[in-house]
Design a protein that fits this description.
heterodimer, A: 152 residues, alpha+beta, BirA Bifunctional Protein, domain 2, two-stranded antiparallel ribbon, 38% helix, B: 74 residues, mainly alpha, 2 helices, 31% helix, 4% strand
């Protein structure tokens, strides 16, 4: 079976503040379309890598960095759930570390994106783009071990 | 993951074109495979005896429905 990883880039047009607010609140307060994430007493939702740790802060910072056409971009990464779910049986240590590993995947993907979008130096090397970002790991697996949902 | 449209210094835009999406997917696949140690074959080898393993059901609603509010790559 070929291993595949689902990724999806989207964007929100410049000026669409209300739409952006809806997206950020959706990510912050929902596990998915049906399951609500408790506003209080929950774990820290956003992992702040420079853009903010709450929808208000992220909206404000992204608005300041919008272009004439784009307000912000979003990326969903979903690992192959069937394979990751099997780690529970065959490698419990990796299974227990899956959220930490997923965060590392996100950081490495963003590192590669910054490199890709960077500036080519005269000597051939690249200066990475300095991009702040924030992300959420949706892990329904915390509640139900047989499901490994970790889109980011 | 939420990424702004420009870099921190507001000097350069961060663009994602169609050709870049394949690069993102390839990096995500490679890093997932490496970090979760899926390349060893230890996981995929078990696919031949799925009865011993947790169910693969429960795929994310995210990929079935997508996230609302968003538009495709520009």
């Amino acid at each position: 079976m070929a291993m595949t990883c689902y990724t999806d880039w989207k964007f929100i047009r410049a000026g669409a503040t209300s739409k952006t607010k809806g997206l950020l609140r959706y990510l912050e307060y929902r596990e998915d379309r049906y399951n609500h994430h408790p506003r209080a007493a929950g774990p820290e939702r956003w992992i702040d890598c420079g853009l903010g740790r709450g929808w208000r802060e992220i909206l404000r910072n992204a608005s300041e960095l919008q272009t004439g056409k784009v307000l912000l971009r979003s990326l969903v990464i979903r690992p192959p759930q069937e394979l990751v779910a099997q780690l529970q049986a065959i490698d419990p240590k990796l299974w227990n570390d899956r959220l930490k590993l997923m965060k590392e995947v996100v950081d490495r993907v963003m590192g590669a994106e910054m490199e890709r979008a960077g500036i080519q130096r005269p000597n051939g090397s690249r200066q990475p783009l300095d991009l702040p970002y924030s992300h959420v790991i949706h892990a329904g697996a915390e509640k139900e071990a047989s499901k490994a949902r970790t889109p980011t | 993951m939420i990424v702004p449209a420009m870099d921190r210094d507001r000097e350069r835009p961060f663009n994602v074109y169609l050709k870049d999406t394949q690069h993102t997917r390839e990096v995500a696949r490679r890093e997932t495979e490496h970090l979760f140690q899926l390349e060893k074959g230890s996981v995929t080898a078990h696919l031949s005896s799925p009865g011993k393993l947790p169910s693969a059901r429960g795929t994310s609603r995210w990929t079935r429905t997508g996230i609302p509010h968003l538009e495709g790559v520009s």
